[in-house]
Amino acid sequence: MNKLIYILLGVLLAACSDELNVPTTGDDTNVAGMALRFEAVVIDQPQASRTHVEDVYDNYITRDFKASDSFGMFILDADGNFVTEIDGHNALNIKVTTPDGKAWNLNSDIKEVVHKLGYKYVAYYPYSEDFNSCATVADIKAKLTAPAEDQSTQAAIDWMYTEPTSPSINAVTTLRFMHRYAKIDIYNSYTQDHHGSWESTYKYTKTVDDNGVEHYRYILDAATAQTLTVNGRYSIGNELTGIKELSYDFGDISIQNGRHAIVYTYRVDERCAVDLGLPSGVMWSPINLGAETASYMDDAEIAAATNTIGLRLAWGELFPKDTYSYDTYINDPYQTSGTSILPADISETVYDAARQYWGGHWTLPTATDIQEFIDNTEIVSTESIYSTELGKNVNKITFRSKINGNTITIVSNGYIVNATLNQPEHLHYMSASRVGTASCSTLHSNPNMTIYNNKRYVGLGVRPVLKMSHIYKAANKLDIVVRHINDLAVDLGITKEVDGVTYKLLWSPFNYGVETKVDLVSYNNRPINEELFLSDCAKQLGMRLAWGTTEESDDYNTVGYNTGPLAEKYNYNASGSDKDVRDLKPEDDVAQINWPEGWCLPTAQDFQLLVDNVTVTNESINGITWFRLTSKSNGNSILIPASGYIDGKVPTTPKTFSEAYLPSATVGSSSSTVSGTTKRTIYALRLNGTAASIVNSAGRCTGLMVRPVRYVRVE
């Protein structure tokens, strides 16, 4: 009845593209050359089992090396002994590091490696100085000891090693890593009472994620084949809905060297959800509740099940009945003085049939979800098909997304009152939303798509949806920006001379801090779509900061700033006049603190160069005015949102602005007095309409968005 999914864990990491030219000396037994380049390959195979086999790339799970990962490398001579020195430098346990998860560099005093016939290389992962004492290959493997008791982090189980590998002359040497220990992850998602009779022969760690999904991680010695059996039972329902017990049994889960498995105890694989590009991110199941089979469903089986009507349930109940009436309903509101004992929204509760039966992150759609579906799809075909369940024809309606063009089909099902089927030519699918005390919202067609309020006791169909989960943490989002920002810098054709050196003045494509504003979401822990995240960043406002601060405030108060440490540090009463002076010190420049080297707040002169070299237009994005600054020389552009400024308390209701102000690192030459308090200024860029200018009236305490720049030396 459940899905068993086995996953290949592996990825080929591309090396850098420059060729390695090794000069020959005429003696093939001794060839000197440049430092070796490596590819690191994790050797994994699909999991062998009596049931379904799944490739990792179909499941969006990879074993990517990350920036700054390192492995240790030893060199074997023709006699099988470790080479201890090269050119007077230590050659034991050489650290090899990747700056980007792809190319690998020697992190050693050795700049060249001598190639000799018979030399081979042995590597292990991850690098540790504990391996310095190894004298043989056996010593290396012996140090790849059993993982710690706590297996909640992946690093604890990624001990890998290679067999001796011959170098490739004039090419990249490929090191093929194998696991010393293999792992199996089990994601158990049933939301009700669960009892697992899982083998305790192997130690495991249990964790529970933010969505209430249980994760069990087993670690098995990968040197010899191992098997694991997983079985258990779970109950759905409560004293109101009734209780039913279901069970699952996964046997003969085989683990071998370099193999990794994940078992989902979901009843329906979440990867089958249809992405219609909806603004909320909600995805819809391609089949109805009750159309699932007892074993794993491949694409063809899912396609066939789209014609199945499936279960009919009363709102908030979990089991089908012979008759649907107030007498058989769990909550007759007219017998309880016009009140409901069920909540107004039953999604993700014990009354949510989609969540109870399918588990995971499946749930009933709310009325809002249904309206979003109606607003963003269009009917492209209606086909009459014969329903064996009903013994009559029904309509199979195909909807196409207005956003991304993907399609989904839903069959008409009608609804049941008492034991009588009504309107089988129309759609009647329940939502999780109650209307008043007696009705619920339903997806309905008659003939147009609408939301219809139907009595809660009637028998309705269920089309589950997949809600967003696994919010990416702000710290990780910042890391995405940091890793990509140099490549994303926009060249507007502006150059600048500093102390006789010419620099390109590159601009960030978005304001600082958007990585804390964008909620990037994934399904089933699949890797983050960094391209999508970065495109979202360009449409976010960013962080609003006072000059020299790194955290947002609820109150950009002149008096508070005037008595704070920054005012004393920068002589708040002093003023400047040179637009090209960088008054803000590096330790107070938020871009220099958190972004890669070379990024900083622009000076007032940087803004002046921007004003002189771009044209300004504006456009509306998500109801906000954005200014597009387009280079006069190369046509490249950046977008800057109209974020205005906040002087005082942040409004509880978000304000709409028509201007943009961006702070420079340069102190202004004027001041203003408001209510007896003097505000010392900075230079700022002002965008209004189709005009850009440099102003000298921005208070240092004022809350402004920040747009960093990067200086790149022109060789």
Please explain how this structure is put together.
The protein is mainly β and 715 residues long. It is built from 10 helices and 47 strands. The strands form 16 sheets. Strands 2-11-10-9-3-6-7 form a 7-stranded mixed sheet. A 4-stranded mixed sheet has the order 14-15-12-18, with no helix packed on it. The termini are far apart. 37% of the residues are buried. Mean pLDDT is 81; it is low at 1-34 and 45-62.
Task: Write a compact overview of the structure shown.
The protein is mainly β and 715 residues long.
Structural class: mainly beta
Poorly predicted runs of 5 or more residues: 1-34, 45-62
Binned strand content? 35-45%
Query: Span from first to last CA?
Result: 65 Å
Q: Count of helices?
A: 10
Shape: flat
The number of strands is: 47
Protein topology:
Blueprint: E1 31-32, E2 38-42, E3 70-76, E4 85-86, E5 89-90, E6 94-97, E7 105-107, E8 114-115, E9 120-125, H1 137-143, E10 160-161, E11 173-179, E12 181-188, E13 194-196, E14 204-208, E15 214-221, E16 226-238, E17 242-255, E18 260-264, E19 283-284, H2 299-305, E20 312-313, H3 353-358, E21 362-363, H4 367-376, E22 377-387, E23 392-401, E24 407-411, E25 415-417, E26 420-422, E27 428-435, E28 439-445, E29 449-455, E30 460-461, E31 465-466, E32 469-471, H5 474-488, E33 490-498, E34 501-507, E35 521-522, H6 530-537, E36 544-545, E37 555-556, H7 558-562, H8 565-569, H9 590-594, E38 599-600, H10 604-613, E39 614-621, E40 624-631, E41 637-641, E42 648-649, E43 659-674, E44 677-688, E45 691-699, E46 704-705, E47 709-713
Parallel strand pairs: 2-11, 12-18
Antiparallel strand pairs: 1-8, 3-6, 3-9, 4-5, 6-7, 9-10, 10-11, 12-15, 13-16, 14-15, 16-17, 19-31, 20-30, 21-31, 22-23, 23-24, 25-26, 27-28, 28-29, 32-35, 33-34, 34-47, 36-46, 37-42, 38-47, 39-40, 40-41, 43-44, 44-45
